[in-house]
Amino acid sequence: MRCPLLLSCLLLPGLAWAATPPAFQPVEGLKAAAEAYVRAQLGGAAEVTAERLDERVRLPACASAPNATRSGQAGNTARWTVALSCAGPQSWTLYVPVRVSQPQNVLVARRNLPAGSMLVAADLRNERRDTATLPQGYVDEQTAVAGLVLSRPLAAGAVLTPGALAKATVIKRGEAVTLVGRSGSFEIRAQGKAMADAAPGDRLAVENTSSRRLVQGRVLADGSVEVPL
């Protein structure tokens, strides 16, 4: 090839080199791809950091963006392993460890609380915690605990979890209860005996004291049992 200008001849090899894709996949791009994948899965304000990759890693350049998937168990939200895979022209898979932090205000116990405690605002306080390290979940609103009791003890400073909450029992097995049947403006009441413990909203079997028949009803907040007519 003849070049009319010496400068053009000098530039052409450089331009050809610049247009040639890199022989190896850039390491920083792999870290960014792993972080972007985790952010897309979690959303919100998660802080995501891929661990440093060995700069000596030499993977053949991928013809398209590597495919990202989560590898291993999904239970741990604080640590992820992202598998980055290239289909070609030379296939490979790289596993990238990623650390996740999700700081958020959650409710914790102000003092030691025994099982069965009816929770009130004075029992709890807001505290900022990394929710990615709370696999059993958390509660972040005082209104979410209204009318609920602890199903197990909660130590001072411990995070309140959904599994530690239960509806307050208003009826005990064997107690006398009032059966209420309504149809429009018509209402009928009868006495019965509860066949189990129950909380508002529960379905409960009740023995009618007069007829000895078992009926099913829904427990109301005042401790009565509404039955269909």
From TrEMBL:
InterPro entries: Flagellar_FlgA, FlgA_N, SAF, SAF_FlgA. The keyword Signal applies. GO terms for cellular component: periplasmic space. Residues 1-18 form the signal peptide. It is found in: Periplasm. Residues 104-166 form the SAF domain. GO terms for biological process: bacterial-type flagellum assembly. This is Flagella basal body P-ring formation protein FlgA. It comes from Hydrocarboniphaga effusa AP103.
